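Objective 1b: paired records.
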Amino acid sequence: MPNLSYSMRKYDLAMLQLHRDIKKGLEKQDSILGKIQTIPTSHGGTTRQVSDPEIVDTEMQLFSIDVILESEWIRKTDVDKLAEFLWETCQALITQMRKYFFEVFSKTTEAVGNVFPAQGMNIYDAQIEMLKRLEMSFDKDGQHHYEFIVGPETARKMRENPPTPEQMQRWEEAINAKREEYYAQKRTRRLS
């Protein structure tokens, strides 16, 4: 008598692929993770983030959560429950990924010397000083396409205390100076 298997391997693989596709789609919709190019890897171990002046290697991370998928949702084709399940699991994984991204980003930024000590400073004054230290590039229309990303607490403080007109003017002046510097360097490079 042949060995009977009640495994739903093809179904399980299809559900796994569906979950991966949904997670990838939700990552693209995330305001931060969606802007980061991802490259699938098939190795374990470490990834070199920075080589100089300080080496930063990071371990590959396994993001996981414990879930309960009720077979009744599938048996009854309860699309709402299944969609809610996929949404919640993806959001939990994205939260882990975002946290790890900021840990790696912090280590990388420190290693290359791009950390700005802003303790005790007004956030807008600190932002202007950081801008002055930043190397920027601009497109043919003079736009820089940079974003200033802050944590939720800082964002709340910024909403509650908007910049003064003087700070807004200093910000614009700093951007204009960066734009002029960029185009001056670009003209110099072409003449060389």
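Objective 1b, second protein:
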Amino acid sequence: MTAQTLTRLRELKLSGMAQALEHQQQQVAPFEGLSFTERLELLLDQEHTLRDNRKHDRLIRQAHFKIAASVSQIDYNQKRQLKKEVVARLAQCDWIERHQNLLVTGACGCGKTYLACAVGHAACLRNYRVRYFRLSRLLLALTQAKADGSYAVSFRQPSKIMG
């Protein structure tokens, strides 16, 4: 019966629930005192978590970030003149809700790429579609899109991250 259930869960593309059910069967003791509804909630939570993780991974992959960066790893030393409040506000992604883009400027070597990738990564974790461009590639993409008539379609995606 259980093998059939696991097969059906996988056929229905509920692999998170299948994994959680297998775990519940292998580790019986922690789940013995739980009601059917509580165990079902655990299965659903696992499925939901797995899908969220897959979505975040896909959004991060599609963003084409140059480097893997995190807001929590940003260096706020005096030389860089970054303000934690400003970065924290950017990481909240309110600017995306206002349909704005982010353009990061500064001197060579000051960490523009890292900052743009970190804020973009934070946006992906909030389920926003993001695309990282260096300015030269953005201008090239805009020129090509305008030339081939795909300009309106190419840039309908919400939020573009540029560094």
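The longest helix spans residues 36-63. The beta strands are 102-103, 131-133, 160-162.
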